[in-house]
Amino acid sequence: QVQLVESGGGLAQPGGSLRLSCAASGFIFSNYAMSWARQAPGKGLEWVSGIYSDGSNTYYADSVKGRFTISRDNAKNTLYLQMNSLKPEDTAVYYCARTTMAEPEVGFEYEYWGQGTQVTVSS
């Protein structure tokens, strides 16, 4: 049974940082691309970042490029998202997902989701 459990969300001030983690189980983590996506209040789902199964390539939405860093530790079956220089518009529920590819191009699909973790950026 595939399980993805996010943690690390919370309240941050503008310009601050948070690190999200996603613990994966029930599948061979090192075989799959993974992504982070988010959903802000009243808005649709936005893909944020993706990473190859071996961590060799990473991809970012323009809205977070240069501020967020995705990484993974295949020995610990854990995906991370380091978020720096946070902005109020980063406020959203953040989801970890197993995806068919590391970036949203032809053939990209979300396969499994976590329950999400709330990130709120406010002074």
What does this structure look like?
- With 123 residues, the protein is an all-beta fold.
- 0% of the residues lie in helices and 50% in strands.
- The protein has no helices and 11 strands.
- It has strands at residues 3-7, 10-12, 18-25, 34-39, 45-51, 58-60, 68-73, 78-83, 92-99, 110-113, 117-121.
- Strands 2, 4, 5, 6, 9, 10 and 11 form a 7-stranded mixed sheet that branches.
- A hairpin with a 6-residue loop joins strand 5 (45-51) and strand 6.
- It starts with a strand and ends with a strand.
Q: What is Rg?
A: 13 Å
E-strand count:
11
Q: Give me the secondary-structure category.
A: mainly beta
Tell me the series of helices and strands, N- to C-terminal.
EEEEEEEEEEE
Q: How many helical stretches? A: 0
Report the sheet-strand fraction: over 45%
Largest sheet: 7 strands, mixed
Apparent shape: globular
The residue ranges in which pLDDT falls below 50 over 5 or more consecutive positions are none
Helix content: under 10%
Cα distance spanning the termini: 40 Å
Q: Please state the average pLDDT score.
A: 97
